[in-house]
Amino acid sequence: MDFICNFPFFSILLSLFSGTICSILPGKAAKIVNRVVIITVGILSGILLVYLLDSGESFVYWMGHFPAPWGNEIRAGVLEAGMALFFCIIMYLSMAGGAHKLFDEVEESKHNLYYILINLLLSSLLALVYTNDMFTAYVFVEINTISACGLIMIRQVGRTIEAAVRYMIMSLLGSGLLLFGLCIMYDLTGHLLMSNIKESVSLLIQNGEYQIPLIVSIALMCVGLCIKSALFPFHAWLPDAYGYSTVSSAAILSSLVSKGYIFLLIKIIYRVIGFDIFNSTRIIDVLFVFGLMGMIFGSLSAIKEGDIRRMIAFSSVAQIGYIYMGFGMGTQAGMVASVFHILSHAATKSLLFIAAIGLTEVSGGSRKFIDLTGAGYRNKWAGVAFTAGSLSMVGVPLFSGFISKLLFAQAAVQVEGKMLAALIVLGISTVLNAIYFMKTVIRIYTAAGDTPYPCITFKDMKVHAVVLILFVILNVLLGVSSQPIVNMIEQGLAMFA
Amino acid sequence: MYLILLPILFPILAGFCLLAYRKDPGRKLLTITTGICLVITGALVVVALMGTKQGLTLFHLTKKLPIYFNIDKISVIFSLLTVIVFLCAGFFSFVYMKHEQKEKRYYGYYLMAFGVLNALCFAGNLITFYLFFELLTLSSFPLVLHTGSKEAVMAGLKYLFYSLCGAYASLFGIYFLYHNCETLTFTAGGVLQISPASREGSFFLLIAFVMILGFGVKAGMFPMHAWLPTAHPAAPAPASAVLSAVIVKAGVLALIRVIYFIFGTGFLQGSWVQTAWLTLTLVTIFMGSMLAYREPVLKKRLAYSTVSQLYYILFGLAVMNEEAFTGSLLHVLAHGFIKSTLFLTAGAIIYTTGKTRVDELRGIGKKMPFTMWCYTIVSLGLIGIPPTGGFVSKWYLAMGGLTGDIGIFRYLGAAVLLVSALLTAGYLLPLTIQGFFPGADYDDTACRKQEPARLMTIPILCLTILSVLVGLFPNIITNYLTDFVSTLL
Questions:
Q1: ipTM of this predicted structure
Q2: Is residue A394 part of a domain?
Q3: Which class for A147: exposed (0-12), middle (13-18), buried (19 or more C-beta within 10 A)?
Q4: Which DSSP symbol is given to B387?
Q5: Structural domain of residue A410, as residue ranges?
């Protein structure tokens, strides 16, 4: 076993322990530790990805060389390593893009707390991505929830406390359901390791035993993760949580935290239940329908919203709907489209949050549309970046959003019964997206008469501007050279089996 | 080989630099730079047209979707029209834009739209075409809301909304085509290998109809025409000239590409789609003329006229035989030159007198005889009086319609063309009549010559001459097209 195989384990531990170290460091040092950890983990994941692409097969890593069921297992394939790398990139950019706002948003004495939470969040995300053990997954789901709550709460205004409580209740409900599902599964199969459960499940299916408890268990796990990733109609916690937390938190929550749970669900579908068994249940139809409803109702709520941050948050509901629609198609192509959309949405949504903060800054901190009039002229970089993000969301070619829509449509065309519904809703939702994003773009480029707000040039916001440019480049990269990424996703999904 | 990219990238980059340039360069420098950029782009287009022998695959969007450029005879016709109208309207706007704000932004987007249109003409497959179709909407949209008044912003939004809806309706069709065709490269005669009688075929007929409606939005097809008469007059006059003469032609080009190069005429001939399409075109021709006839504001009247005239072109496409298709292409050129002249003269009138309504313009011929002469000549062309451009194209259209295998539409088509020609005379000529013959009670002692500056009159003159030339020497174009057209059908 090569030394590189230790990397997943290293990255989890590194981020976990750096969190602990941050608690005794002053804010500034904690920030440096945090950045270094994210970069290191990113580099480790990158090397791992190259290694895996080269070797062409996944590996299982026994912690401490104890075989299961005594020891704990980690598993890494192309998709896991790719996700970890991508998560690190987005997290670094989001942190850098929101750093200048942190002093307004969080008391200085609490800065190191903030970095503890970020590190914990990263470690739990990595664990969710890499783990091969359902119980470990559950433990890190909880860690993830707690650190996410902390991230919402750390900005101490009334709305965030309410939002955090709401998030806590919904999230705990979700993890509770996940735990129920897990218990039933453990009862049925006697295993907690993903590969072992899968063998037992296929035996159970073959023998026709315990069909109903099995379905109930799968359904509970799905619903639990749906609640946590804010699938319509479980999205009530989302707009406040994303809308009022600090800007980095909002970007990270929307583009990484919910995606971590979705990735866990993908793992459960492939590694625990088995893709074909999962598709033979009726659950995918339910996911499909709720996905479609989310696409429409999320956008409708976004259109009605008068607050730019909450609007972007509602748009997440619609985008999560896309991902679940891909699951609901029950084909390999649908799954590839969903995974690609996880990437594309993460890149776009964090861009939008970071750009929106640039726009609200030059509008006296107000997030109401009326005050944002002309903000695109006052902060040119944020304006351009927001426009680029909007175009990607609407699905203009050359941006990542177009490719994911194309992939969804391609997948839909292959599924006889769901084709028309999927394509029509895709069309409607695209037009709805266009309505609220173009409305915003026009608003920020409508010349405002006399405003008391100052203009911001590149000198005042170097880091912010560079981050925005990097985000736009990431988006265009995903949109222009999508084929290698799609190939990688296909390869990764094949490794899951 | 990369020659073909120059006329696309150069104006887009130039426009981008102009927009990104922070300081105010001063009016003179700005117009000179823009002028040079326009001329260079024009030259680059000609060079690209002459020098390109084979297509160019730029890169692959996904495995089956290359971004691919190629030049065929359709590209030549459309890109020459684009270049001429953009150059003339561009020079015209150097004077006209004096009384508008934010010139830098205007020229920036103007250049960008130019580049995007060139790309649209050179696009070699459906996905490249779609890409630039979207970009065209986005780059021409700032031209519509240029004045920034509430009315203009609403018009811009309407334009954006209709265009995006249309584009997505077409994208819906592209999804299915992508799945069922070997390639989406434009191939004369079509690439769809499905018989219209099969079960799949009847579904693809529906797809074809949705795509016709979707791309038709850009060309102002009834019932999705409402954006056009709102958006075109809202823009500054040279921009409306470009919008009406060239940018709506992107919709026409889209339909040519989709019907003749993707679906193939064999697939649609005699189907319900052809019937529905013919009905829609005839309704639109008639309705556009009627609305223009009733409209008192000059620029709006011209915009309604655009709706009507575009559907002459689409009627020719829907008939699907060689003569009608040739007629359509001729009318693309004729209407392009004529409508841009009309909008530019309207612009010259607004610039010098500030009046917009037709009934306020009594005696305008005494003040601006040169402008009004050009107006009158091209009006006659649009009505279809020989020897100007409109006559030949309408002749071909009518002949194509009469010999076409389209049942009752054979006679209906010719009848509607005639009635609409009368209406055209009815809405264009009153301005000439009142302009030159204001009546006995008109006090012409007070009137002074108010001809606009050279930079305005010369583009108008060039376009007028071209529109007449199309009528005098249509053979050059028809000979050029004969072989090519027969491969299409």
A1: 0.76
A2: yes
A3: buried
A4: T
A5: 284-497
* Cβ partners under 8 Å of residue A73, min gap 6: A60, A61, A62, A63, A131, A132, A133, A193
Compute the distance between CA of residue A248 and CA of residue A343 in angstroms, rounded to an integer.
Answer: 18
- Separation of first and last alpha carbons in chain A: 21
In a domain, A331, yes or no: yes
pLDDT given for residue A464 in this prediction: 85
Q: What is the pLDDT of residue B444?
A: 65
**Nearest chain B residue (CA) to A480:** B61
Count how many domains chain A has: 1
Would you say residue A497 lies in a domain? Answer: yes
Residues whose CB falls within 8 Å of the CB of residue A462, separated by 6 or more in sequence, listed in order? none
Q: Chain B residues within 8 A (CB-CB) of chain A?
A: 59-63, 65, 127, 130-131, 134-135, 138, 145, 148, 153, 156-157, 160-161, 164-165, 168-169, 171-172, 175-176, 178-179
- Stretch among A179-188, A221-230, A413-422 having the lowest mean pLDDT: A413-422
Per the CB < 8 A criterion, the answer to whether B246 and B338 are in contact is no
- Element containing residue A451 per DSSP (H, E): none
DSSP alpha helix (H) spans, B257-363: 265-268, 272-294, 298-319, 322-353
Q: Are A192 and A69 in contact (CB under 8 A)?
A: yes
Phi, psi of B190 (to 5 degrees): 95, 160
Of B62, B156, B160, the CB nearest to A403: B62
Contact residues, chain B, for A482 at CB < 8 Å = 61-62
From the list B148, B164, B176, the residue facing A434 with the nearest CB is: B164
How many other β-carbons are positioned within 10 Å of the β-carbon of residue B283?
A: 15
A268 and A277 Cβ atoms separated by less than 8 Å: no
**Whether A434 and B176 lie within 8 Å, measured CB to CB:** no
Among B3-7, B20-24, B209-213, B267-271, the range scoring the smallest mean pLDDT is B20-24
Residue A127 counted as domain residue: no
B33: Cβ contacts below 8 Å, ≥ 6 apart: B18, B25
Would you call A192 helix, strand, or coil by DSSP? coil
Let me know: does A354 contact A247? Beta carbons within 8 Å. yes
Nearest alpha-carbon partner for B75 in B261, B349, B320: B261
- CA-CA distance, B375 to B9, in Å (whole number)? 35
